[in-house]
Amino acid sequence: MTDKDKIEDNSSFEEFRNNLKGGKSVKKIVSLLAPFSSRAKEILDAFENFDEIEKQFDEISKSPDQFNNYFSGLGWIAHESGNHDLIMECINLAESDNIKAAEEKLADHYTSEEIQWLVTSTYGVPEFRKRNNLINAAFEDTKAQRFHSAIPLLLMIIDGTVNDISKSKGFFAENTDLTAWDSIAAHSTGLSKLRDILNVTRKSTTTEEIFFPYRNGILHGRDISYANKYVAGKAWLTLFAINDWAKALQKNKENSPKETKKPTLKEALSNLKETTDKYKLQKEKRAETDKFMNHWKSRKPIANIDFPAQGTEEEYTEFTPERDAVYFLTNWQKGNYGQMAKQICLFSDEFNMGKEAGRVRKVFDQKNLKTFEILSVEHQAPAIAEVKVKVIVLFNEIEYAKEIMLRMLYQNEQRENMVYGQSGGVWRYMDSFFFHKIEMLDWDY
After folding, report:
1. Contact between residue 340 and residue 360 where contact means Cβ atoms under 8 Å apart
2. How many domains does the chain contain in total?
3. What's the rounded Cα separation, in Å, for the pair 394 and 94?
């Protein structure tokens, strides 16, 4: 595969740029006709936000290259799931000769609870999903600033995951192809360059503090003073960039790259109208999400409950984790394994409802839920809540009282994450945090 020189030359950016160019031509023609034609005036209205879209696109398309230009040599690269506002803030700081402040912000961000959503997004890649417990352990260590244990764990996860994806060699092998068509993270200026930096030979033992997650120095015990937020943050960023690379590979596999062709004026108008409508919708959704994000940040997690500990689904507020938890528990009582399976949080397209219902039946069959009581609901992130429940279960003719935790993720119908407070979503349980616990509970006492 031949990489283009800049990320802004990626196919998706180029296609959008061509739409804008074609749209400019259409706008010019329609503007001349608008005074004489009501139809032309209607078409011109579609260009209402054209200048704003063009400005936003110019910023978005150029920012990955600008960011990598300033920060890739320091161990930070742009990637698809990165925070765009943070990227722009760091670029502005760099342009003001304040690289140090920018690095501080990056390190703080990638070692904070703000990366919870990025951690959750790794569940969609099978090679990461099988390392779920390790990723969560690294995240817990990071939040507690136990960087000495989080960093080696992340390096092992990174190397093993890439090995599984490439089916050949790990992340740190020189000849591993870390590129992908039409990708930001997997551009030649991204992961490949980052790998070369982190894979340098470290032959001597040193107690001097380092600021890069050098794989050889850390895992071979030569770089002793590695436990800081900069090393941890860069390790997490690398993991998330690999996650974006894996998704780009899958996307390319399902939809092979197409040649970019210049659209006709009619096609340009149609494409631009579609793009404008999508832009307006995304802007509205982003504004709504930001509003609820700010609301969530201003709230403390709720550990006490202000709703019935026991009740029917209708007694709980809509679009809350406790209501969907009660719905799940009620289906358990009824032995409705199909409905229970529908509440599983999916992180992959490889999902067969019949197979999942059978899997649920295998785990819950003969464990008859007699009663349940909600003990607490704690909102750990904008889209994540933990519902602690006390259950009385009849198993092998013996009643057991158990406390279990439902870890739930708030999503829309398209399985996209939403923010607590938004309406229309469903709280689904992450079976990796709950499903297997039912299997592993000690039912012998």
Report:
1. yes
2. 2
3. 62
Does 99 fall in a domain?
yes
Q: Write the CA distances from 314 to 165, 311, 321, integer angstroms.
A: 45, 8, 13
Residues whose CB is less than 8 angstroms from the CB of residue 128 and which lie 6 or more positions away in sequence, other chains included = 122, 135, 157, 161, 243, 246
CA distance 406 to 314: 19
Domain membership of residue 169 as a residue range: 49-262
Q: Are residues 145 and 53 in the same domain?
A: yes
pLDDT tens-digit series, residues 321-375: 999 999 999 999 999 999 998 888 866 556 678 888 888 888 888 889 999 999 9
Identify whether 79 is part of a domain: yes
- Domain CATH code at residue 322: 3.10.450.50
Segment holding 363, helix H or strand E: helix 353-364
Residue 160, helix vs strand vs coil: helix
Q: Which tokens belong to 213?
A: 């997650």
- Residue % of the chain over a pLDDT of 90: 44
**Coil, strand, or helix at residue 346?**
coil
Among 387, 425, 435, smallest CA distance to 407 is for: 387
Verify that 241 and 321 share a domain, yes or no: no
Q: Distance (Å, rounded) from C-alpha 7 to C-alpha 184? A: 6
Q: Is residue 11 part of a domain?
A: no
Angle between helix 132-143 and 229-254 (nearest 10): 150
Same domain, yes or no: 233 and 321: no
- Do 250 and 398 lie in one domain? The reply is no
Same domain, 337 and 240: no
Residue 410, token pair as written in the block: 């708030």
Quote the crossing angle between the two packed helices 191-198 and 229-254, to the nearest 10°: 140
Residue 278: is it exposed, middle or buried by C-beta count within 10 angstroms (0-12/13-18/19+)? exposed
Q: Clarify whether residues 242 and 358 are in a common domain.
A: no
Report whether 194 contacts 212 (CB < 8 A).
no
Residue 72 lies in a domain: yes
Q: Residue 2 has what DSSP assignment?
A: P
Quick count: other Cβ atoms within 10 Å of Cβ 10? 19
The first and second tokens of residue 154, run together, are: 């992340």
Q: 215 Cβ partners below 8 Å, 6+ apart?
A: 155, 159, 172, 198, 199
In three-state secondary structure terms, 307 is coil
Do 81 and 211 belong to one domain?
A: yes
Note the pLDDT tens digit of each residue in 148-205: 999 999 999 999 999 999 887 889 888 889 999 889 998 989 999 999 999 999 989 9
Return the residue matching tokens 């009849």. Answer: 394
370 φ, ψ to 5°? -90, -50
Instruction: Specify the pLDDT at position 270.
Output: 64
Q: What is the pTM of this model?
A: 0.67
